[in-house]
Specification:
By secondary structure, the protein is of the alpha/beta class. The protein has a domain of 191 residues: NADP-dependent oxidoreductase domain (TIM Barrel, Alpha-Beta Barrel), CATH 3.20.20. The chain has 10 helices and 10 strands. The strands form 2 sheets. Strands 3-4-5-6-7-8-9-10 form an 8-stranded parallel beta sheet. α3 packs across α4. It is globular, with a radius of gyration of 18 Å. It starts with 7 loop residues before the first strand and ends in a 25-residue tail after the last helix.
């Protein structure tokens, strides 16, 4: 049986799958898990130089036997390589680690306030123009940073990859990205497991005969221009997290889950590199 196909989201000529397989903290058996994700239907594989998982991702892609053109591979350049020469060297190193000729999406992993955005975003655009990547974007940028990045980058940005889940409001960011025609790519979509005991999501999951994780992911991708990159580490969960496309949540269920954002739970906030996040209020 053929696995189902994920929704795709369109931004500035890119058609990006709405669900990806995240590979931070990928274990030794990572290549096997990446291959299992591809077999389950995932076509977006998300990695980063900082994760140290690019080699395993590349192995998994080769083990899957799938044609390169059918996959969307995302990687990221660390904020320590924000200078142009370092940035381009990092992108080239990622390709060697992955054993790929190009990636589909290259992101600036975290903002670097010590380097002008024009230099870092200029290097990002150069990576695209030189064929290292097909599309470009940013990660962990605030609204003001997104606005500046769009202004100074010579090539269109297609996404801002940030923390987003049912316990963290991102309404203002969603509105800002909509203005720029960009996708919000959600990491930590389960709030690192904090959603898994939520009674509201649990009740909705029971009504649909689905897991809490599936409900949390469906809530995300049912919103316009939102993608998600969960990182399940068991094959059963890999399959579950992709089983999102032949059912939907009602408007009332979407509203009930959205109301949980009042909790304002933020998971990823490393003091050494996190910016001052935008304040969000939920009505």
């Amino acid at each position: 049986m053929q696995p189902p196909k994920a929704f795709t989201l369109s931004a500035h000529g890119a058609k990006m799958p709405a669900i990806g397989y995240g590979t931070m903290e990928l274990p030794e058996r990572g290549p096997e898990l990446v291959a299992a994700a591809i077999a389950a239907g995932y076509r977006l594989i998300d990695t980063a130089r900082k994760y140290g998982t690019e080699e395993r991702v590349g192995e998994g892609i080769r083990a899957s036997g799938i044609a390169r053109a059918e996959l969307w591979v995302t990687t990221k350049v660390t904020e320590l390589d924000a200078r142009e020469a370092d940035f381009l060297k990092s992108a080239e190193t990622s390709l060697k680690a992955l054993q790929l000729d190009y990636v589909d999406l290259l992101l600036v992993h975290w903002p670097q306030p010590k380097v002008p955005f024009s230099e870092t975003l200029g290097a990002l655009a150069k990576a695209k123009r030189s064929g290292l990547t097909r599309h470009i974007g940013v990660s962990n940028y605030t609204i003001a940073m997104v606005d500046e990045a769009v202004r100074v980058c010579p090539e269109p940005l297609i996404t801002n990859q940030i923390e987003y889940h049912a316990y963290l409001p991102q309404d203002r960011m969603l509105a800002a990205l909509k203005r720029h025609g960009m996708i919000l790519t959600a990491y930590c979509p389960m709030a690192r497991g904090k959603l898994l005991n939520d009674p509201v999501i649990g009740e909705i999951a029971k009504a649909h005969g689905k897991t809490i994780g599936q409900i949390a992911l469906r809530w995300l991708i049912q919103q316009p221009m939102v993608a998600a990159v969960p990182r399940p580490l068991e094959e059963a969960h890999i399959k579950e997290d992709f089983d999102l496309f032949d059912w939907s949540l009602s408007d009332d269920e979407m509203r009930r889950i959205s109301a949980l954002r009042r909790r304002h739970v933020r998971i990823a906030n490393p003091p050494e590199r996190a910016p001052k996040w935008d304040e969000e209020t939920v009505a």
